[in-house]
From TrEMBL:
A Pfam family it matches: b-prop_At3g26010-like
Classification of source organism: Eukaryota, Viridiplantae, Streptophyta, Embryophyta, Tracheophyta
Organism encoding this protein: Brassica carinata
TM annotation in the entry: none
Domain F-box protein At3g26010-like beta-propeller: residue ranges: 81-412
Name by which UniProt lists this protein: F-box protein At3g26010-like beta-propeller domain-containing protein
PANTHER family cross-referenced by the UniProt entry: BNACNNG10540D PROTEIN (PTHR31672)
InterPro entries: Beta-prop_At3g26010-like (IPR056592), F-box-assoc_interact_dom (IPR017451), SCF_F-box_component (IPR050796)
Coiled coil: none
Amino acid sequence: MEKPNDREMDLLTEEQWAIMLSRLPPIPIQLTKRPKISGTESLLEDLIIAFKLVCKKWKSLVESPFCRDLYLSMYQNSYCSSWSFMCRGCETETMAHYGSDNWCLTRSLGSYISSFLAEKFENREGRVVAYTDVGLILIYVVTNQSFYVANPVSRQCVEILPHNHVMERFWILGIVTRTEDEVVLGYKVVLLEKKKNFTSFLIYSSETGSWSLETVSFPFTFIAQEFNNPISLNGKLHWLAHNPEYKDFLVSFDFYPSGDKGSDRCRVTPFPDLDKTTKFTRACTTCQGFLMYINIVSVAEVDKLCVWRLKSEGWQLVSEISTDIVTAGFDYIPLGMNPFDDKLVYFWRGNMEGQDLLSINLHIEEFMVHEELERSSDGRVLSSVGGPREIDYIKESYYSSFVLPRWLHPFPN
């Protein structure tokens, strides 16, 4: 593309240029490096032009709040961005949703992650240890104990060198982000060391560019904590713990507290069905900026699919329907909720002979069994895990939702 000179740029105001750019597909606007991918992509991706490389003025315009706000207002009624359910531990994409969204992606997010890891790290040394709802993943390389924060679609990647502490003592808890208007302003990588009487967090902050050690004393007693699937949401990390009575609690810790809440950073919330018989191992998911909890609970000898939302005052029951709507029997495991639609919850079952992906609409109490690769009339693609070799592992695993934001603004280095 021929670069415009300053005189040509001055023929239009910045607002007019921003309006023009905001009407163009977002991937060509955002990508500064064309990803190396195998296979044939859509014509749109074949014709990607890195507008941010045209000239400094275009780069400034594309990254400006005015252009971002204008774009988001234009696409506020669009369905959603791409997202996936990722199986923790084996990095398997259990379910993917992509297609005719704002980004026009023709591959799943799991595919972008795989190709990014293959390009960036030799011998597949890098593994994903945390996913977010803002397009960032946390990667850990065991050989040199370094971390990387990356967006696998835009290919932006930041290396974080290890702290001089003995890293083996710490558990990788995850990554938390500070956002404003869907733009990541900062992030923290959080490691945890649990001692008998206290807990230490080893925290890397993008604002300071350094590690710091913070010791906290929780005002309650645990006999065990589970860090297999911490969930990052709104600057907090949430994980499961058990009290001395062997009851399950949710621990929430705020790593970006406001000024008047610094002393109230930790919260413990008992699960709402502790006095009931439940079907699934307790785990949480996210939807529309809230932490959600799904389980099948026996109520008066009737199995009910219950969904709760975590509010400031505790768990709020938002849905309760009979599992009898699934006529073939409910031998599924929960994957999570649609991150953008609180009506839809997804389940999976499988064996060596086959597998099913089940979605339930909580509002109309109807279900649908999906094929392994299913396209809707508008081009969206819903796909489930592609092969039986991972099935046994998937049955015993936790799942994280990985979501691409509507605006791929660069995150802090």
